[in-house]
């Protein structure tokens, strides 16, 4: 079972954290600091699987970002290793070559993608198109809707969504 997923830059700053088991907020900072020490300072030639306390850590580096997944002993390390790569491919497909800034400024979208892939610590989806479908639907809806869109707003003056009470009542047939 997946216990947590962290996305950390080379400076050790956490850019994304997702916990599938309850960890007290105070303990999260210590856990993340220790995970950074375990993974970021290892040589590239070393194995990407590390034993750490009650977890196995599976990590992968992409440019300046490290994705670290904490798993239980019964989870398959290679499947998690490939899941991390799949997650990066999904991010690349959506953001067209994802960068650290894309993640920082679109954290909500990254969480949506991750939630489509992992539910309660279990892998539920790996198909890139199915993972991105809800997000693309949200993007399409956002393109179509403008602030103050609707029947009443369309009939109001173009100066914005403001109108006097009399104008609104007149439009509704009460004035």
UniProtKB/TrEMBL annotation:
The keyword Ribosomal protein does not apply. One of its GO terms (cellular component) is endomembrane system. Residues 1-141 form the AP complex mu/sigma subunit domain. GO terms for biological process: intracellular protein transport. It comes from the Eukaryota. Keywords: Membrane, Protein transport, Transport. It is found in: Endomembrane system. It is a peripheral membrane protein. Adaptor protein complex 4 (AP-4) is a heterotetramer composed of two large adaptins (epsilon-type subunit AP4E1 and beta-type subunit AP4B1), a medium adaptin (mu-type subunit AP4M1) and a small adaptin (sigma-type AP4S1). Belongs to the adaptor complexes small subunit family. Component of the adaptor protein complex 4 (AP-4). Adaptor protein complexes are vesicle coat components involved both in vesicle formation and cargo selection. They control the vesicular transport of proteins in different trafficking pathways. AP-4 forms a non clathrin-associated coat on vesicles departing the trans-Golgi network (TGN) and may be involved in the targeting of proteins from the trans-Golgi network (TGN) to the endosomal-lysosomal system. This is AP complex subunit sigma. The lineage of its organism: Eukaryota, Metazoa, Chordata, Craniata, Vertebrata.
């Amino acid at each position: 079972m997946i216990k947590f997923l962290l996305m950390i830059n080379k400076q050790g700053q956490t850019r994304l954290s997702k916990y599938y088991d309850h960890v007290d907020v105070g303990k999260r900072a210590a856990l993340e600091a220790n995970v950074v020490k375990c993974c970021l300072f290892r040589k590239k030639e070393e194995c990407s699987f590390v034993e750490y306390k009650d977890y196995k850590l599976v990590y992968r580096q992409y440019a300046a970002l490290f994705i670290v997944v904490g798993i239980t002993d019964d989870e398959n390390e290679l499947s998690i290793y490939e899941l991390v790569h799949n997650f990066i491919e999904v991010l690349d497909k959506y953001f067209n070559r994802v960068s650290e800034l894309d993640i920082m400024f679109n954290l909500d979208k990254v969480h949506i993608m991750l939630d489509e892939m992992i539910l309660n610590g279990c892998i539920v989806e790996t198909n890139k198109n199915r993972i991105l479908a809800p997000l693309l639907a949200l993007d399409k809806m956002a393109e179509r809707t403008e602030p103050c869109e609707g029947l009443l707003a369309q009939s109001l003056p173009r100066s914005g969504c403001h109108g006097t009470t009399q104008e609104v009542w007149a439009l509704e047939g009460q004035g």
